[in-house]
Amino acid sequence: ALAFLARPRAARVPLKGRHVLITGGSSGIGLAMATAAAREGARVSILARNLARLEEARAAIQRESGRGDVGVHAADVRDADAVARALREAGPVDVLVCNHGVFVPQELERQDMEEIKWMVDINLMGTFHLIKAALPAMKARTRETRLPGSIAIMSSQAGQVGVYGYTAYSASKFALRGLGEALQHEVIMDNIHVSLIFPPDTETPGFEEEQKRRPELTNIIAASSGGMKANDVAKKALDGIKSGKFIVPCNFDGAMLAIATAGLSPQSSPVMAFLEVIGAGLMRFVALCFQWNWFSTIESYYAKNKKRE
Ligand SMILES: NC(=O)C1=CN([C@@H]2O[C@H](COP(=O)(O)OP(=O)(O)OC[C@H]3O[C@@H](n4cnc5c(N)ncnc54)[C@H](OP(=O)(O)O)[C@@H]3O)[C@@H](O)[C@H]2O)C=CC1
Ligand SMILES: CCCCCCCCCCCCCCCC(=O)[C@@H](N)CO
């Protein structure tokens, strides 16, 4: 019965010989995805702001994959015109990976409104700019090639559960899920599959920078899910894209989190649909245990720091 129910139907999205455009492809997870996609025979384009870092990344991707045809596009995703120009330059895309992102954790009360807007503008509005710029040519491509296309969006485990210090970041990442769910309805008849990727803490240049300002409570709560390497996240992400998965967890905790937060998301795998139905009650119980633990941590953290004052 669940095999009949699971929708949209499972798809295979090939990478070989196809045009994969990755934003934030000059660093961390994006660079690892670009390298892996090029190795699998994709024509890769990367987009970010800093041209020098893009050129460095291009050289690294060429070195690791042996492919010469790596496109670089310098644009700020906040600038809709610049994004549209870059996409015209790059040519029609088969697989669009919206991976660019910024994250500065801080208590809401201490974080400037400017920094909050900056995160929402890049993480959320930037993704809108990209999808709007890429979609018309993507639709024409899936029609022409009769192969499924993909729009992948990089969220975060902080886009599945709110975490201390991440009011702005979690809001921007949760928002991407709403975007993705609604978009999947809109593009399914064009044979385009949306994937939302949910990594835990991942070793990247951006993460190293984040550590400098991360509140201790953010560190403790985020450590509930084990850290990963950028290459491993990239592999999980590309596997998810290739099999047209809507929700793409990256580690074991992520798989549990996906079941706990399945909600009304599309599910094309009957096996996963079965696990979600069976696991719903149990995972809610596990989730309550995690919350119990997090609130206890916050209480004892405050108790300890009061004594010090
Ligand atoms: N590392 C982690 O722990 C986790 C990361 N993620 C998500 O994964 C994604 C990648 O993270 P990570 O690899 O760590 O990040 P990095 O900071 O290492 O790289 C970020 C990339 O995004 C680009 N970028 C940033 N701002 C803009 C902008 N305004 N316009 C265009 N490009 C931009 C950067 O290039 P440039 O600065 O030159 O523009 C760079 O290429 C993000 O969306 C992040 O939220 C999710 C979960 C965990
Ligand atoms: C019911 C089962 C529950 C399973 C365990 C739940 C664990 C949740 C941990 C949340 C971690 C958030 C990390 C955000 C990383 C990130 O995005 C930043 N590094 C910025 O990029």
UniProtKB/TrEMBL annotation:
A GO CC term attached to the entry: endoplasmic reticulum membrane
Source organism superkingdom: Eukaryota
Keyword Metal-binding attached: no
Pfam families assigned: adh_short
Enzyme Commission number: 1.1.1.102
Catalytic activity line of the entry: sphinganine + NADP(+) = 3-oxosphinganine + NADPH + H(+)
Biological pathway: Lipid metabolism; sphingolipid metabolism; Sphingolipid metabolism
Keywords: Endoplasmic reticulum, Lipid metabolism, NADP, Nucleotide-binding, Oxidoreductase, Signal, Sphingolipid metabolism
PROSITE patterns named among the record's database cross-references: ADH_SHORT (PS00061)
UniProt-listed GO biological process terms: 3-keto-sphinganine metabolic process; sphingolipid biosynthetic process
GO function terms (MF aspect): 3-dehydrosphinganine reductase activity; nucleotide binding
Broad enzyme group: oxidoreductase
Main location: endoplasmic reticulum
InterPro entries tied to this protein: KDSR-like, NAD(P)-bd_dom_sf, Sc_DH/Rdtase_CS, SDR_fam
Subcellular localization(s) per the UniProt record: Endoplasmic reticulum
Similarity comment text for this entry: Belongs to the short-chain dehydrogenases/reductases (SDR) family.
Protein name as annotated: 3-dehydrosphinganine reductase
